[in-house]
Amino acid sequence: MIDRSKAAEPADVLLVEPSDERARRTRDGFLDIGSTTIHEVSDGDEALAFLEGRDEYADAPAPCLVMLRLELPGPDGLDVLERMAERTDLSRIPVVVTVDDPDDDVVTDAYKRGANAVLPTPSDPAALAETMERVAEFWIATARLPNRIDRL
Fold first, then answer.
1. What is the predicted pLDDT for the residue at 152?
2. For the chain, is the Cβ count within 10 Å smaller at the N or the C terminus?
3. Which CATH number fits domain 11-142: 1.10.150.240, 3.40.50.2300, 3.40.50.1000, 1.10.443.10?
4. In this structure, what DSSP letter does residue 52 have?
């Protein structure tokens, strides 16, 4: 396996998650994967402001990965995906969608709107942390990502 966790630049990840507990478990899953900075927002409006560099996020870095909860207050995850797809600078950022109910129609809609992966969220806290570790291992330690300078 190629290990990109020791890249020259830290991996900036945008976590869009309204649940404090799920956000903590996601952060925990990313802890062991090299230099990763998690930027957290809790709703669709904040996610779009961060991605578009508006308001309090005017100086926010461009993330190399977005972890997007589908069920959100304000614009939901599908709306955020649509807005990202409309902008060339945002459409190239990989998006991992997390969802409570992986209904076939929901999964299909997420992929149609640009998701790179759709993950059911385990209800067991330990299983959730393990899932996030696997996500981080692939997306941060292995994959080449936009907005990140790798030495390899």
1. 43
2. N
3. 3.40.50.2300
4. H
Condensed to tens digits (0 to 9), the pLDDT of residues 82-112 reads 999 999 999 999 999 999 888 899 999 999 9
Domain boundaries, the chain: 11-142
* 61: number of Cβ within 10 Å: 15
Which residues, 6+ apart, have CB-to-CB distance to 73 below 8 Å?
18, 42, 43, 44
Tens digit of each residue's pLDDT (9 = 90 or more) over 114-125: 999 999 988 888
Instruction: Give the pLDDT band (50/70/90) at residue 2.
Output: low
Reduced 3-state DSSP string for 78-112: HHHHHHHHHCHHHHCCCEEEEECCCCHHHHHHHHH
